[in-house]
Amino acid sequence: MFAIYNNGSVGFRSTADNLYELKNTDAPLDARLKPDDDTLFQELSKKQERNAPTSEAVNIYKKMSNIDTTEIVYHVEDIMTADCMYVTDQSTLQDAYDILKEHDFSQMPILTSEKKILGMINKKIILNLLIEDIENSRSILSKKLEELYLNEVITTEPITDIRRVSKVMLDFKLDAIPVVNKNDVLVGIVSKTDIIKAVSYIPKLKLWS
User: Fold this and answer.
1) Domains of the chain and any CATH numbers
2) 45 vs 202, more confident
3) Which of 23, 45, 29, 19 lies closest to 156, judged by CA?
């Protein structure tokens, strides 16, 4: 499941197929995971056994997505960075720039005091604002993020097939997608790096076959 937020308001929440239709982008190719029947990722299996509601939700998702229910689905919550760095809407552009530079991040979420997502901030946004009014750079850098007009941001939910998220990231040229629960609260972020690590370390995870 995906959503689009625009300055804190949800303008869209639906499946990947509907996201592509909304954005007039080609629908994702049919991606299927086909692990060997006798080999499963042990840690994830144990996790699912301990959490029956999650397993039931995954099976329902598989049926809705036309996925063979004998196949294991890896979803976002299994690979995302849960304790991700963020800034609040009360932070300044200078604050955001310092954090991005210090941690060498390409971008990070902007949240309200209730951890609800407003948008994403990156160095390019900050530099463009400075270039537009270079003589008043100090004033611009002191602006609070809540004063900015933020571009809409695509988010995903914790229980979303990694393959769907990977395809959306590629097609919409996204380096990362915030992970938001049904209460619009940020619970993590999934990046290209997270996906590459997952493919490397989870033996039977294949994005496309």
Assistant:
1) 2-24+31-81+156-201 (3.90.1280.20), 87-147 (3.10.580.10)
2) 202
3) 19
